[in-house]
C-alpha cells in the first residue's frame, strides 16, 4: 500500500512517464528474470536523471519508505527484487541510458547506470577503443548492476573486475544528497577512495547513477583454441604453461566439465563435438593483441605443443576463423541456458585459489555424489581467476521438487568445501537475498560488524535495499 501523498511526490519527481502504474507492466520489475525471486512494491519509478533519482530517494526517506535500486534485473541472487511487504519502492535506472562522454586520449568513457553493457562496448569500439567487461547477459545487464555486484566475466584474467575498471562514480546517498565522484583520474591520493564502498554493495549504501570507466586499445588480433583434458589438475597445469609463454596476451581461460558440454551438445542449436573421443574436461583458451598481425596462432600452437610434450593436453584445435571462434564460445556460453532444459538448476558461484581448484573439485564432487547418487554436476568458469560456477542438476528420472527441497543441504556441501580451501561463496554474483544469511557462517564476525558499521553510517534508517547482503543480527 502506498503511503498517502507519496504517489503524488513521486509523480512530481519523475513525471507521468517515470511512474509505472499499469499492472500489466509491473511484473518485470517485481520478479527476477528466472522467476526465482518475487515481491510486491508500493510503487515502481523510472527516473530520467540523477536529480530525479535524488528527488525520489529524498521523498521515500521522508516517508520512511525503503528503496530497491534495479538495473537490468539479470542477477541470480535476488538482489534487485523487493520484498513481499508491498511497502518498498522499486527504483529502476532503465531510463538513464546516456553515454555522457568518451575520451579516447584519456582512455575513459562516462556513462549512466542504466546503459546496457553491450552499448558501452559498442560506444568504445566506435572510438577505436575496448571496454573489456564481457558477460553472457551483456545484451541486457546494465552498468549499474555490473558495479553493484562487482561483475567479473571472462576478461578478469587480463583486465580485472569492475572494481579495477572504474575510475569514478556518481552516487545518490540515502538522504538524497548527490556525491559527484566522476573523476577520470588514475592517480588521486587525497584520502579514502570512496567509490570502492559502493562497488559490490548491491545498492545497500546508495544508488549509483553514473560512472567513469577505463578503456583500452582495441583488440586487432585473436587466437582461440579448444583443448581436451583428462583432469582439473591438467587444466591448472595448462594455465601455467600458457601464461608463462604468452603473458598478458592471455585474455581468456575458461574451463568446462564434460557434463556441461553434454548439455550444450544436447540442447544447443548447431553445437557439435569437436573430438572423436569423450574427455572429462575442456578448456577454451584465447589470446589477444592490439597488433593486427601479432602471430598469435603460432604462439598458441607453441604453448599447446608444450602441453602435449608434458602429457597435459589430450587433444586440441585452434580456431580457423571467426565462425569457428564463435562456435567455440557458443559451447562455453550456452551452458547456463542448456542446463535449464534438464530440470531445476541449483547455482553456485564460488572462488578458490587457482592452485586449489583440483583438490576442491575432487572433494566437492565426491561429497555431492555421496549425498545424491547420480547427481549431475555442471562445473564451468573462469579458471584463470579461480572462479567456478558449480551448478547442480537432479539425477535422471528423479523428481524436480524433491531435488529443490535439498537445495540448502547441497549448497552447504559446496560452501563448506569452498571455505575449507579458503575460498569465497560468491565470486561475482553477489549475495542479494540468496546468500544474505548463509554468509554469516563463512565470513569473519568482526568483518561483518565492520560492514554493518559502514551501512549504519550511510543508511542509519536501513531504507536502502534492506534485507540484502547483510545477515540479520
UniProtKB/TrEMBL annotation:
<comment type="similarity">
    <text>Belongs to the FAD-binding oxidoreductase/transferase type 4 family.</text>
</comment>
<keyword id="KW-0560">Oxidoreductase</keyword>
<dbReference type="GO" id="GO:0022904">
    <property type="term" value="P:respiratory electron transport chain"/>
</dbReference>
<dbReference type="InterPro" id="IPR016164">
    <property type="entry name" value="FAD-linked_Oxase-like_C"/>
</dbReference>
<feature type="domain" description="FAD-binding PCMH-type">
    <location>
        <begin position="37"/>
        <end position="218"/>
    </location>
</feature>
<dbReference type="Pfam" id="PF01565">
    <property type="entry name" value="FAD_binding_4"/>
</dbReference>
<dbReference type="InterPro" id="IPR016171">
    <property type="entry name" value="Vanillyl_alc_oxidase_C-sub2"/>
</dbReference>
<dbReference type="InterPro" id="IPR036318">
    <property type="entry name" value="FAD-bd_PCMH-like_sf"/>
</dbReference>
<protein>
    <submittedName>
        <fullName>FAD/FMN-containing dehydrogenase</fullName>
    </submittedName>
</protein>
<dbReference type="InterPro" id="IPR016169">
    <property type="entry name" value="FAD-bd_PCMH_sub2"/>
</dbReference>
<dbReference type="InterPro" id="IPR016166">
    <property type="entry name" value="FAD-bd_PCMH"/>
</dbReference>
<dbReference type="InterPro" id="IPR006094">
    <property type="entry name" value="Oxid_FAD_bind_N"/>
</dbReference>
<dbReference type="GO" id="GO:0071949">
    <property type="term" value="F:FAD binding"/>
</dbReference>
<dbReference type="InterPro" id="IPR004113">
    <property type="entry name" value="FAD-bd_oxidored_4_C"/>
</dbReference>
<keyword id="KW-0285">Flavoprotein</keyword>
<dbReference type="GO" id="GO:0016491">
    <property type="term" value="F:oxidoreductase activity"/>
</dbReference>
<keyword id="KW-0274">FAD</keyword>
<dbReference type="InterPro" id="IPR016167">
    <property type="entry name" value="FAD-bd_PCMH_sub1"/>
</dbReference>
<dbReference type="Pfam" id="PF02913">
    <property type="entry name" value="FAD-oxidase_C"/>
</dbReference>
<dbReference type="InterPro" id="IPR051264">
    <property type="entry name" value="FAD-oxidored/transferase_4"/>
</dbReference>
Amino acid at each position: 500500500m502506498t503511503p498517502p501523498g507519496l504517489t503524488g511526490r513521486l509523480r512530481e519527481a519523475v513525471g507521468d512517464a517515470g511512474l509505472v502504474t499499469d499492472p500489466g507492466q509491473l511484473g518485470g520489475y517485481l520478479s527476477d528474470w528466472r522467476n526465482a525471486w518475487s515481491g510486491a512494491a508500493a510503487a515502481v519509478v523510472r527516473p530520467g536523471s540523477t536529480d530525479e533519482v535524488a528527488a525520489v530517494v529524498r521523498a521515500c526517506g521522508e516517508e520512511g519508505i525503503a528503496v530497491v535500486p534495479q538495473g537490468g534485473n539479470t542477477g541470480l541472487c535476488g538482489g534487485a527484487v523487493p520484498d513481499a511487504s508491498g511497502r518498498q519502492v522499486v527504483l529502476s535506472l532503465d531510463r538513464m541510458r546516456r553515454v555522457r562522454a568518451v575520451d579516447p586520449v584519456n582512455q575513459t568513457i562516462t556513462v549512466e547506470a542504466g546503459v546496457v553493457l553491450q552499448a558501452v562496448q559498442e560506444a568504445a569500439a566506435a572510438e577505436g577503443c575496448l571496454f573489456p567487461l564481457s558477460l553472457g547477459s551483456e545484451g541486457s545487464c546494465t552498468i549499474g548492476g555490473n558495479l553493484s555486484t562487482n561483475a567479473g566475466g571472462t576478461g578478469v584474467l587480463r583486465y580485472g573486475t569492475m572494481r579495477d575498471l572504474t575510475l569514478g562514480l556518481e552516487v545518490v546517498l540515502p538522504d538524497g544528497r548527490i556525491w559527484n565522484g566522476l573523476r577520470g583520474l588514475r592517480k588521486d591520493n587525497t584520502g579514502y577512495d570512496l567509490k570502492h564502498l559502493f562497488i559490490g554493495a548491491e545498492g545497500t549504501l546508495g544508488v549509483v547513477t553514473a560512472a567513469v570507466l577505463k578503456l583500452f586499445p582495441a583488440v586487432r588480433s585473436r587466437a582461440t583454441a579448444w583443448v581436451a583434458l583428462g583432469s582439473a589438475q591438467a587444466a591448472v597445469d595448462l594455465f601455467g604453461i600458457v601464461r608463462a609463454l604468452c603473458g598478458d596476451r592471455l585474455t581468456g581461460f575458461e574451463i568446462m566439465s564434460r557434463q556441461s558440454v553434454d548439455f550444450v551438445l544436447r540442447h544447443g542449436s548447431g553445437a557439435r563435438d569437436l573430438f572423436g573421443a569423450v574427455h572429462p574436461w575442456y578448456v577454451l583458451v584465447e589470446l589477444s593483441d592490439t597488433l593486427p598481425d601479432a602471430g598469435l596462432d603460432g604462439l598458441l600452437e607453441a604453448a599447446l605443443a608444450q602441453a602435449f610434450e608434458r602429457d597435459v593436453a589430450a587433444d586440441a584445435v585452434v580456431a580457423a576463423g571467426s565462425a569457428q571462434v564463435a562456435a567455440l564460445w557458443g559451447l562455453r556460453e550456452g551452458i547456463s541456458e542448456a542446463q535449464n532444459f534438464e530440470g531445476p538448476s541449483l547455482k553456485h558461484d564460488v572462488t578458490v585459489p587457482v592452485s586449489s581448484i583440483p583438490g576442491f573439485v575432487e572433494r566437492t564432487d565426491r561429497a555431492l555424489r555421496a549425498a545424491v547418487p547420480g547427481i549431475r554436476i555442471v562445473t564451468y568458469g573462469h579458471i584463470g581467476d579461480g572462479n567456478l560456477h558449480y551448478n547442480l542438476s537432479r539425477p535422471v528420472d528423479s523428481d524436480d521438487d524433491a531435488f529443490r527441497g535439498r537445495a540448502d543441504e547441497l549448497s552447504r556441501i559446496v560452501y563448506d568445501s569452498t571455505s575449507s580451501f579458503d575460498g569465497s561463496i560468491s565470486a561475482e554474483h553477489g549475495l542479494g537475498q540468496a546468500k544474505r544469511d548463509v554468509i554469516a557462517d563463512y565470513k569473519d564476525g568482526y568483518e561483518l560488524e565492520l560492514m554493518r558499521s559502514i551501512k549504519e553510517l550511510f543508511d542509519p534508517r536501513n531504507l536502502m535495499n534492506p534485507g540484502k547482503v547483510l545477515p540479520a543480527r
